[in-house]
């Protein structure tokens, strides 16, 4: 019976993918590659075919790529019906229907949700509308920002997460005066901790950025023509500027699922390791799958914590796993066990990481030196290696990935190439208190272990 | 032709930057910057860069025209499948 359904589904079922970006596209390709011949509908809120976002804060601002031409290459024909420029606005789990903003409804037999995240807007709406205030998430954002930067002299960036730091780097290369403000004690602390944050801070200041840490922006001021003129800070100071880039992390696109009965909320959509979404009761659904930035899934290597990963590689891997699991028999399903990994480049320095750095309490610099900005740092938690970060030392990361996968002991007890005296002892990795608001951590740890009896559920409300 | 580089895989060997310098460039010691849209006249150089990448991090489409078995094979190779 179940096998009959699956055969029918693979042959002539209807699969709908909500979210037409990296995860959505790779899922569609995987479905076709694995023999799905039914109808496929791709729904996307932007009027563009799937494009790549990482270049928008790097190659595009450096003038190496056009913001309008970062469309992703296709691995194969996906033969889909594309509904682009029409956001999904609702989901009926019982009738198996997705509602669209134009009033249309699309029926599915299996659904994949890959609606991702959007940039967190400036919290004062009116100030956010001032001419010269920008977010950076979409290609339209990038095109508008780039055009304005060409005639600007001074840029003020709010938030020193990866995106904010990358924009600061690109703006300095364009010869602009840059002020970078961060609530925490250093850039990148949410993602990499204070030890590495100090290196990131030196990188900014050493390249001429006016870095202001431990500070918040209290107001954006416009001139009578409605154009942004200056930024007011919590220490009472005021900085004049031509452009403000708001880089305060992201919000998950789950509002359209409110009231649907799915376990969706501000922290994303919870799913099992096979990418099947949970409903609000914590019971796994059969026909709704999740992938990419919007998903939260348990990872066996990291204590079954639910990980929300805003990582390019996670979107690809989770999409492939979700698509595979959507059209295969139960016994052939695969868990999403992707090793978290990301990259960034700032001031020509290549920053890469594997594992989950914010899970670490301690860090050891096992190779190279912080002062030279060329090193590998290893993060440990409860006697295990849980993550590593490299600055201009990427070729070693694969080794550390294997260490994480096999639960290698921490502090590391083996010798490494280029170990310096500073790397002999672990030190406090210096992550901020997770209960304090921070901007732009790329990994969010949340949820509970299966053994935890303290489970508290708040129905999906924003 | 469109392309994307999996920068998790990329280890900065710079083969692509030697073979297709108008598409790929090193920015610093191991950071790669590239144009996601390559001009038609770059086809052959891009194909060589895709093939030469030691970690097979480059995916490109349209290398052998928009369709056809050769193009499909190139894409499969580029995906590391």
UniProtKB/TrEMBL annotation, chain A:
Residues 413-448 are annotated as: Disordered. One of its GO terms (molecular function) is oxidoreductase activity, acting on NAD(P)H. Gene3D superfamilies: 3.30.390.30, FAD/NAD(P)-binding domain. Residues 416-427 have a biased composition (Basic and acidic residues). InterPro entries: FAD-oxidoreductase/Apoptosis, FAD/NAD-bd_sf, FAD/NAD-binding_dom, FAD/NAD-linked_Rdtase_dimer_sf, Reductase_C. Residues 342-411 form the Reductase C-terminal domain. GO terms for cellular component: cytoplasm. It comes from the Bacteria. Residues 14-319 form the FAD/NAD(P)-binding domain. Its cofactor is FAD. Pfam families: Pyr_redox_2, Reductase_C. Keywords: FAD, Flavoprotein, Oxidoreductase. This is Pyridine nucleotide-disulfide oxidoreductase. The gene is hcaD.
TrEMBL record, chain B:
Its cofactor is [3Fe-4S] cluster. Residues 60-81 are annotated as: Disordered. The lineage of its organism: Bacteria, Bacillati, Actinomycetota, Actinomycetes, Kitasatosporales. This is Ferredoxin. Ferredoxins are iron-sulfur proteins that transfer electrons in a wide variety of metabolic reactions. GO terms for molecular function: 3 iron, 4 sulfur cluster binding; electron transfer activity; iron ion binding. Keywords: 3Fe-4S, Electron transport, Iron, Iron-sulfur, Metal-binding, Transport. Transmembrane segments: none annotated. InterPro entries: 3Fe4S_ferredoxin (IPR001080), Fe-S_cluster_ET (IPR051269).
């Amino acid at each position: 019976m179940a096998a009959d359904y699956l055969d029918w589904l693979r042959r002539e079922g209807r699969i709908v993918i909500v979210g037409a970006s990296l995860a959505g596209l790779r899922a569609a390709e995987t479905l076709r590659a694995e023999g799905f011949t039914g109808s496929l509908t791709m729904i996307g809120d932007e009027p563009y075919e799937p494009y790549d976002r990482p270049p928008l804060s790097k190659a595009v601002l450096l003038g190496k790529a056009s913001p309008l031409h970062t469309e992703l290459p296709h691995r194969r024909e996906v033969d889909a019906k594309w509904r682009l420029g029409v956001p999904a606005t609702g989901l009926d789990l019982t009738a198996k229907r997705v509602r669209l903003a134009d009033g249309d409804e699309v029926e599915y037999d299996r659904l994949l949700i890959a609606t991702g995240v959007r940039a967190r807007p400036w919290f004062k709406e009116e100030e956010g509308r001032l001419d010269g205030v920008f977010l950076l998430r979409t290609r339209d954002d990038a095109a508008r920002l780039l055009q304005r930067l060409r005639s600007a002299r001074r840029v003020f960036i709010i938030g020193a997460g990866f995106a904010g730091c990358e924009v600061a780097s690109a703006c300095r290369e364009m010869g602009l005066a840059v002020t970078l403000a961060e609530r925490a004690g250093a850039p990148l602390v949410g993602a990499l901790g204070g030890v590495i944050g100090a290196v990131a801070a030196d990188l900014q200041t050493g390249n001429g950025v006016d870095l202001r840490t431990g500070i918040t922006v209290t107001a954006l001021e416009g001139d009578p023509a409605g154009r942004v003129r200056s930024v007011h800070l919590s220490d009472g100071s005021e900085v004049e500027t031509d452009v403000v880039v708001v880089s305060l992390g992201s919000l998950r696109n789950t509002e359209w699922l409110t009231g649907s009965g799915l376990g969706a909320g501000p922290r994303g959509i919870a799913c099992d390791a096979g990418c099947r979404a949970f409903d609000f009761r914590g019971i796994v659904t059969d026909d709704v799958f999740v992938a990419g930035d919007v998903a939260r899934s348990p990872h066996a290597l990291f204590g079954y914590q639910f990980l929300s990963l805003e990582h390019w590689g996670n979107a690809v891997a989770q999409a492939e796993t979700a698509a595979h699991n959507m059209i295969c028999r139960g016994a052939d399903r695969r868990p999403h066990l992707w090793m978290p990994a990301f990259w960034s480049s700032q001031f020509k320095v290549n920053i890469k990481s594997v594992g989950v750095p914010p899970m670490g309490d301690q860090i050891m610099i096992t190779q190279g030196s912080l002062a030279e900005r060329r090193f590998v740092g290893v993060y440990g938690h409860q006697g295990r290696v849980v993550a590593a970060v490299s600055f201009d030392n990427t070729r070693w990361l694969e080794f550390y990935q294997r260490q994480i996968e096999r639960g290698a002991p921490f502090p590391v007890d083996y010798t490494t190439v280029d170990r310096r005296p500073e790397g002999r002892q672990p030190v406090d990795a210096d992550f901020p208190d997770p209960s304090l608001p921070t901007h732009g951590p790329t990994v969010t740890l949340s949820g509970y272990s299966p053994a935890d009896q303290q489970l508290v559920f708040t129905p999906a409300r924003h | 032709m469109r392309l994307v580089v999996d920068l998790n895989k990329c280890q900065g060997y710079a083969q692509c930057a030697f073979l297709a310098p108008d598409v790929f460039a090193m920015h610093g010691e191991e950071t790669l910057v590239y144009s996601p849209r390559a001009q038609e006249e770059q086809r052959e150089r891009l194909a060589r860069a895709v093939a030469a990448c030691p970690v097979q991090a480059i995916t490109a489409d349209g290398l052998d025209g928009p369709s056809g078995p050769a193009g499909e094979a190139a894409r499969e190779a580029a995906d590391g499948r």
